[in-house]
């Protein structure tokens, strides 16, 4: 579905990504693990068209989408829930959801709002409340709900568990699993290694802008290198 | 009555009330000009120094539509408002956005540069002389008891009200209006939802200029056009925006009326030339004691 081939990217003179090869197949959960500053968000934002790669290719279902502007990436159904949520704080929950379908899924806006509310009943109670007044966990739900409004085909989640209580993290991961069961391909960017590997099909580990480890999630869980570098075992 | 040692003339309440009412009419146009300014500030986070020059340009457009084609200044709104929108859209998309490379301090200089270019070009093309539109109804009006309101004054109030209402409906209920509000506070989040931020910036700038064009139509029947006319209004509009709170819609409206009334009462008590100073005094007082304005968010 998504293919990155030798993707290089950075900010001005600073190189961040050094030739990333990565694939996501239909129906998969693929995890990207890596510590702070590894370049995970940089990768996401290059896929989403916020930044332009300096070299390499991004293919979506065989089509070259390298350098496409963000709105056209969304048109194709690649939708990102960014790190830090980036909801619209000055607008109501309802308006945030509506703007999720600014570009895609507009004809089914009302139905999709109902669907999102089924998944996140807590949002409905606060429909006309300003999004900026929501708790961190509620904001994360809204950010995911907003992305669902665009009927994504590939959902990119950038550290969805960041800042959530352990209980909410559990809830978040089981939600991701549920969305995936409905056929949605998910690219899960996380620092929460063990929980991510438990729900992912495959995973990549990134260090300093390069992929240093990849494989089936079930096998990576027992990988001694991974244990050493991330769990201190 | 005394004020800072000057003895002020004393007037009957009906004179004062009449003056205040004419301040409301004037203030409605200030509010309209300020609305465009505050919208552009709220979304693009820049102060549009070309705002006054664009008002002047729109006033000339209304004037020439009248003198050249006999089009009534109010009817001209149907031409100058869409024209102003597209002009503003193009100006932001093709000039300001491109020249500034996303750096706010450069945008400031670019809008200042545009103002200078427009003003000097107008001076060259139209000469410094004042031009006035003569409408047959400019002295007709309605007797309000305490004062006599001429039709152009009533049109200014009614027109500003309708345009503000239309803008509010647009911002509240349309996807583009919502996208404008989203971009104002969260550009990155907007981009990721597929909102083209450059387009939204240009639409916002276009709406700002359209407000100015509407104000021009409402002004021309009672106000002479000359190349410097914009600078007076833009100073007032800045004061309104600072008074109301930068980026605040309601603030622009309330501020517009407050300034209009203050200015008219200032003229009544202090005379034509000294009366205008009251605006500058308010400007400085607000900056000193309430820099966020009446409705502005507390800056963090
Ligand atoms: N907008 C930007 N401009 C300049 N440099 C940036 C920008 N965003 C990130 N960087 C730099 O790029 C490098 C990679 O950052 P990135 O945000 O991609 O890391 P990350 O893996 O997402 O980290 P985290 O887990 O902390 O979110 C860092 O050195 C960071 O300082
Ligand atoms: Mg990151």
Structural account:
- The complex is a heterodimer of chains A (233) and B (300).
- Chain A is globular and about 45 Å long.
- Chain A has helices spanning 40-47, 70-75, 93-100, 109-119, 121-125, 136-148, 166-181, 193-199, 217-220, 224-231; strands spanning 2-11, 14-24, 29-33, 55-60, 63-64, 78-81, 154-158, 185-190, 202-207, 210-216.
- In chain A, 37% of the residues lie in helices and 27% in strands.
- In chain A, a hairpin with a 2-residue loop joins β4 (55-60) and β5.
- The termini of chain A are far apart.
- Chain A has a domain at 2-77 and 153-231: P-loop containing nucleotide triphosphate hydrolases (Rossmann fold).
- The mean pLDDT of chain A is 92.
- Chain B has 300 residues and is mainly α.
- The N and C termini of chain B lie far apart (43 Å).
- Chain B has a single domain (2-132, 141-289), classed as ABC transporter involved in vitamin B12 uptake, BtuC.
- In chain B, strands 1-2 form a two-stranded antiparallel sheet. A two-stranded antiparallel sheet of chain B has the order 3-4.
- Chains A and B meet through α2 and α3 of A and α6 and α7 of B.
- Bound molecules: adenosine-5'-triphosphate and magnesium ion.
Topology summary:
The complex is a heterodimer of chains A (233) and B (300).
Chain A: E1 2-11, E2 14-24, E3 29-33, H1 40-47, E4 55-60, E5 63-64, H2 70-75, E6 78-81, H3 93-100, H4 109-119, H5 121-125, H6 136-148, E7 154-158, H7 166-181, E8 185-190, H8 193-199, E9 202-207, E10 210-216, H9 217-220, H10 224-231
Parallel strand pairs in A: 3-8, 3-9, 6-7, 7-8
Antiparallel strand pairs in A: 1-2, 1-4, 4-5, 9-10
Chain B: E1 2-3, E2 6-7, H1 13-44, H2 51-69, H3 77-100, H4 104-126, E3 141-143, E4 148-150, H5 151-173, H6 175-185, H7 187-192, H8 197-219, H9 229-244, H10 249-270, H11 272-275, H12 277-289
Antiparallel strand pairs in B: 1-2, 3-4
Helix pairs in contact in B: 1-5, 1-8, 1-9, 1-10, 2-4, 2-8, 2-9, 3-4, 3-8, 5-6, 5-8, 6-8, 9-10, 9-12, 10-12
The complex binds adenosine-5'-triphosphate (ATP) and magnesium ion (MG).
């Amino acid at each position: 579905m998504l293919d990155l081939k030798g993707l290089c990217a950075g900010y001005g003179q600073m190189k961040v990504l050094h030739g990333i090869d990565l694939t996501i197949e239909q129906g998969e959960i693929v995890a990207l693990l890596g510590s702070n500053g590894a370049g995970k968000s940089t990768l996401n934002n290059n896929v989403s068209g916020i930044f332009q790669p300096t070299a390499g290719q991004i293919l979506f279902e065989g089509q070259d989408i390298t350098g496409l502007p963000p709105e056209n990436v969304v048109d194709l159904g690649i939708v990102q829930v960014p790190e830090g949520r980036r909801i619209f704080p000055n607008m109501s929950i309802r308006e945030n959801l509506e703007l999720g379908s600014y570009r895609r899924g507009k004809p089914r806006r009302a139905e999709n709002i109902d669907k999102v509310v089924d998944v996140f009943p807590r949002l409905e109670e606060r429909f006309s409340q300003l999004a900026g007044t929501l708790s961190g966990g509620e904001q994360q739900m809204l950010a995911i709900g907003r992305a669902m409004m665009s009927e994504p085909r590939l959902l990119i989640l950038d550290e969805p568990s960041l800042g959530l209580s352990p209980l909410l993290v559990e809830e978040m991961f089981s939600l991701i699993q549920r969305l995936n069961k409905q056929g949605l391909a998910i690219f899960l960017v996380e620092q929460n290694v063990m929980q991510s590997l438990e729900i992912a099909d495959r995973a990549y580990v990134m260090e300093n802008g390069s992929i240093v480890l990849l494989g089936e999630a079930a096998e990576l869980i027992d990988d001694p290198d991974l244990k050493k570098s991330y769990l201190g075992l | 009555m005394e004020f800072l040692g000057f003895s002020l003339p004393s007037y009957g309440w009906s004179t004062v009330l009449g003056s205040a009412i004419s301040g409301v009419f004037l203030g409605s146009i200030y509010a309209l000009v300020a609305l465009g300014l505050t919208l552009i500030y709220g979304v693009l986070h820049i102060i549009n120094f070309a705002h006054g020059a664009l008002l002047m340009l729109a006033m000339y457009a209304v004037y020439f539509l009248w003198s050249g084609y006999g089009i009534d200044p109010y009817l001209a709104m149907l031409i100058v408002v869409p024209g102003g929108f597209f002009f503003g859209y193009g100006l932001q998309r093709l000039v300001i956005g491109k020249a500034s490379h996303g750096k706010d301090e450069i945008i400031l200089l670019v809008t200042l540069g545009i103002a200078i270019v427009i003003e000097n070009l107008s001076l060259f093309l139209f000469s410094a002389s004042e031009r006035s539109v003569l409408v047959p109804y400019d002295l007709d009006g309605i007797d309000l008891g305490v004062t006599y309101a001429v039709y152009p004054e009533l049109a200014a109030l009614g027109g500003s009200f309708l345009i503000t209402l239309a803008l509010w409906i647009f911002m509240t209920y349309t996807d583009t209006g919502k996208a404008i509000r989203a971009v104002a506070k969260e550009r990155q989040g907007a981009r990721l939802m597929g909102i083209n931020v450059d387009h939204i910036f240009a639409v916002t700038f276009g709406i700002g200029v359209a407000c100015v064009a509407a104000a021009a139509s409402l002004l021309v029947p009672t106000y002479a056009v000359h190349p410097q006319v914009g600078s007076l209004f833009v100073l007032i509009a800045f004061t309104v925006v600072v008074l109301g709170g930068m980026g605040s819609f309601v603030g622009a409206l309330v501020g517009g009326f407050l300034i209009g009334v203050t200015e008219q009462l200032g003229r009544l008590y202090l005379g034509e030339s000294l009366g205008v100073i009251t605006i500058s005094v308010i400007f400085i007082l607000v900056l000193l004691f309430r820099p966020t304005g009446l409705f502005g968010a507390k800056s963090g």
